[in-house]
Amino acid sequence: PLAGGCATVENGGTALVAAASATAYAVKAPSDIDGVHSLAIDTTDGPNRTVQVPSEPTRVRGVGYLSRAAWGADESKRYKDGKVNSPETYYPLQIITVHHTATPNGDPDPAATVRAIYEYHAITNDWGDIGYHFLIDEAGTVYEGRYSGDDGIPAFNPDGDLVTGFHSVGYNSGALGIALIGNLDQQAPTDAAKASLVRLIKVISRFKGLDPQARVTYTNPVNGTKKDTNTVGGHRDYFATECPGQVMYDLLAEVREAAAARR
């Protein structure tokens, strides 16, 4: 049985399943279900690299991360019929939303998983790019997500506004999405992943003048939708989903406190 995980689509659900060394698969649906689609995504080798990858992680305000080029993003996936499928839009940052990818824990090749999520979001879901702004694996490595321009600043444009992602339907504009790689419904994130999450939230909050422990009124700059929420919340605060997993969701108060600490 497949859980809904983080990704959801209208009138249905989706799931990304690690195949490991499988050479074939079968899909069985209840008799009252139709319109089932499946596909296989090969991420073993990744796309050919066309830019030089730095030997050390790139840094943003002291936080090391792997750029899109470093984890093997094929930038052609952002295009459809010769045009950018999802042109970038930017709005001031208001809130930070934590997710989990609902993929297997103990991931032996998280960069391949990031490439699979990219294919899944950009092509399968037709979003034109990966939905999250950042991803964090169990070793604490941070991955750059949604393309935000060529200025070298992940997630933001030179004016400091956040590129709109695709991680929380109805609450995307002005909301930064961070996804922990793995399934955190019954298992806590590793200490390394949790530390990277706290550090990333801390530097972004200080950069943009946010209080990680505050309650705020989020206002969607596109349609005016308002919601009283936490500055740092979980995906389930905005949508009927298991994300970011029950154990991770229960840890969010601790994450907020740690991100707000002076040290």
Descriptive notes:
The protein has one domain (8-260): Peptidoglycan recognition protein-like (Lysozyme-like), CATH 3.40.80.10. The relative contact order is 0.17. It contains five helices and 15 strands. The chain is 19% helix and 19% strand. The strands form six sheets. Strands 10-9-12-8-15 form a five-stranded mixed beta sheet, with helices on one face. A two-stranded antiparallel ribbon has the order 1-2. Strands 3-4 form a two-stranded antiparallel sheet.
Number of DSSP helices?
A: 5
Order of helices and strands: EEEEHEEEEHEEEEHEEEHH
CATH class descriptor: Alpha Beta
Biggest sheet features: 5 strands, mixed
Strand order of the largest sheet: 10-9-12-8-15
Share of helical residues: 10-25%
Please tally the β strands and state the result. Answer: 15
Radius of gyration: 18 Å
Derived from helix and strand composition plus strand pairing, the structural class reads alpha/beta
Strand portion: 15-25%
CATH architecture: 3-Layer(aba) Sandwich
CATH topology: Lysozyme-like
CATH homology superfamily name:
Peptidoglycan recognition protein-like
